[in-house]
C-alpha cells in the first residue's frame, strides 16, 4: 500500500509549486518574478520527490482511494501545467519544460531505487547526478561560446519611427473628377499637367470610387499611388523625377489616361524694392515693376535693395493684410519668394510704408 504520510505533503507541495509556476510564468507576479521562479520550482521538485516516494513505498496501490487521488492530482497537474506552458508570456517555455523533465525523471528514478533496490541507489544516483551536472555545465558553456549565444543577453535594437519629411515645394493640384469611371468622361483635371521640377503634385479623388495614379512606364515603377480612397489625396515630390513626359493611368480603370510633364525649374520672376522706396515723393518707384503679369505656378521673388526695412504683404492699406502671403520684415539685402498657384489679381503693400503698393496679375 502507498504511504499516505509521504503522499499528502508531496501532493500539497507539488500543487503549491505548480500554482506558483503558473503565476510566475503567466506574467502576473512581475514584482517578485525571479524569486518566485526559484522558490516555486524548488517547492515543486521537493513535492515530486515526496509524492514519488509515497506512491512507491510498499508497492503501487490499486485501491479506489489511490486511483481517485491519482486522478485528482493528474487533473490538477495537467490543468496548471497546460496553462503555465501555453498561456504565458515567457520566451523560455521550452527551456523550463526541459529543466522540469531533467529534474523530475531522475528524482522519480532515485525515489524508486531507494524504496525497491537500495543496493543500487548509490551507483545509479551517482551516475544520474554526474550526468545531470555534466549536462548543465555543457548547456551553460555552449550558451556562452556557441554560435547561438543564448546565455548572453542580447541587446534588442529599438526601431525609431521614420518621420516623413514634408515637401517644401509649391503644390500643383490635379483632381480625379466625379464620374471618371465612365469610359469617355473627363477623368484627370488637368489632363495634361505641366509642372516645374521641384513642385509637389497633389491628386485629390473627387469621385465616388477608388482610383490610382500609376505611371505607365514599368506599370508603376516611376510612381504609384496604390488605392486612393474617396476624398483621399496622393502627393508626389517631383524633385527627383526625370524631366520629360510621364504618362499615367488608373490601374483599376485603364482607360483613364493623363500626362504629367516635368519641366526644368524656372528662375523666379524678380521684383525689386529700390533705393529710396520709403520716401513718399512724386516719381518715386516703390516696387519695380509696380504691376507684373505672370502665369500660374510662377514664383515671384522680392529683393530689398533699399537702406531701410520693408515688407511685401498681400492686401491693401485700406482693408489690411488678407493673409495670402507676407514676407515679414525684409532688411537691406533680404529676399522673399512666393509661388502663385491660383489665377487672380493679387494686390500687396508695405505695412511699414503703406503708400508703397504693387500688383501681381496671375493668368
TrEMBL record:
Matching InterPro entries: BlueCu_1 (IPR000923), Cupredoxin (IPR008972), ET_Amicyanin (IPR052721)
Gene3D superfamilies from the UniProt entry: Cupredoxins - blue copper proteins
Source organism of the structure: Nitrosopumilus ureiphilus
Protein name (Swiss-Prot/TrEMBL): Copper-binding protein
Transmembrane segments: 39-56, 68-86, 92-115, 127-145
Domain Blue (type 1) copper: 281-363
Annotated keywords: Copper, Membrane, Metal-binding, Transmembrane, Transmembrane helix
Gene Ontology terms for molecular function: copper ion binding; electron transfer activity
Pfam families for the chain: Copper-bind
Amino acid at each position: 500500500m502507498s504511504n499516505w504520510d509521504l503522499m499528502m505533503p508531496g501532493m500539497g507541495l507539488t500543487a503549491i509549486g505548480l500554482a506558483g509556476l503558473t503565476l510566475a510564468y503567466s506574467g502576473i507576479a512581475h514584482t517578485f518574478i525571479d524569486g518566485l521562479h526559484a522558490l516555486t520550482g524548488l517547492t515543486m521538485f521537493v513535492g515530486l520527490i515526496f509524492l514519488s516516494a509515497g506512491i512507491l513505498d510498499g508497492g503501487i496501490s490499486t485501491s479506489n482511494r489511490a486511483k481517485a487521488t491519482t486522478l485528482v492530482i493528474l487533473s490538477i497537474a495537467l490543468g496548471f501545467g497546460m496553462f503555465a506552458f501555453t498561456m504565458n508570456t515567457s520566451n523560455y517555455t521550452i527551456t523550463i519544460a526541459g529543466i522540469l523533465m531533467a529534474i523530475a525523471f531522475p528524482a522519480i528514478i532515485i525515489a524508486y531505487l531507494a524504496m525497491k533496490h537500495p543496493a543500487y541507489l548509490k551507483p545509479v544516483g551517482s551516475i544520474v547526478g554526474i550526468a545531470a551536472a555534466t549536462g548543465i555545465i555543457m548547456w551553460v558553456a555552449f550558451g556562452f561560446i556557441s554560435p547561438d549565444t543564448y546565455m548572453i543577453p542580447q541587446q534588442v535594437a529599438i526601431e525609431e519611427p521614420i518621420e516623413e519629411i514634408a515637401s517644401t515645394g509649391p503644390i500643383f493640384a490635379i483632381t480625379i473628377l466625379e464620374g471618371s469611371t465612365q469610359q469617355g468622361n473627363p477623368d484627370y483635371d488637368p489632363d495634361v499637367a505641366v509642372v516645374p521640377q521641384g513642385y509637389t503634385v497633389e491628386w485629390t479623388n473627387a469621385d465616388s470610387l477608388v482610383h490610382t495614379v500609376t505611371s505607365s512606364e514599368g506599370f508603376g515603377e516611376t510612381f504609384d499611388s496604390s488605392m486612393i480612397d474617396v476624398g483621399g489625396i496622393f502627393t508626389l515630390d517631383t524633385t527627383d523625377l526625370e524631366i520629360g513626359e510621364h504618362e499615367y493611368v488608373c490601374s483599376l480603370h485603364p482607360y483613364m489616361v493623363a500626362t504629367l510633364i516635368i519641366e526644368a525649374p524656372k528662375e523666379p520672376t524678380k521684383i525689386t524694392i529700390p533705393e529710396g522706396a520709403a520716401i513718399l515723393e512724386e516719381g518715386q518707384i516703390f516696387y519695380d515693376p509696380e504691376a507684373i503679369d505672370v502665369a500660374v505656378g510662377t514664383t515671384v521673388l522680392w529683393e530689398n535693395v533699399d537702406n531701410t526695412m520693408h515688407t511685401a504683404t498681400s492686401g491693401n492699406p485700406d482693408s489690411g493684410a488678407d493673409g495670402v502671403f507676407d514676407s515679414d520684415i525684409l532688411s537691406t539685402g533680404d529676399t522673399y519668394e512666393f509661388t502663385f498657384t491660383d489665377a487672380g489679381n493679387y494686390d500687396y503693400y508695405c505695412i511699414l510704408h503703406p503708400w508703397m503698393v504693387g500688383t501681381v496679375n496671375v493668368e
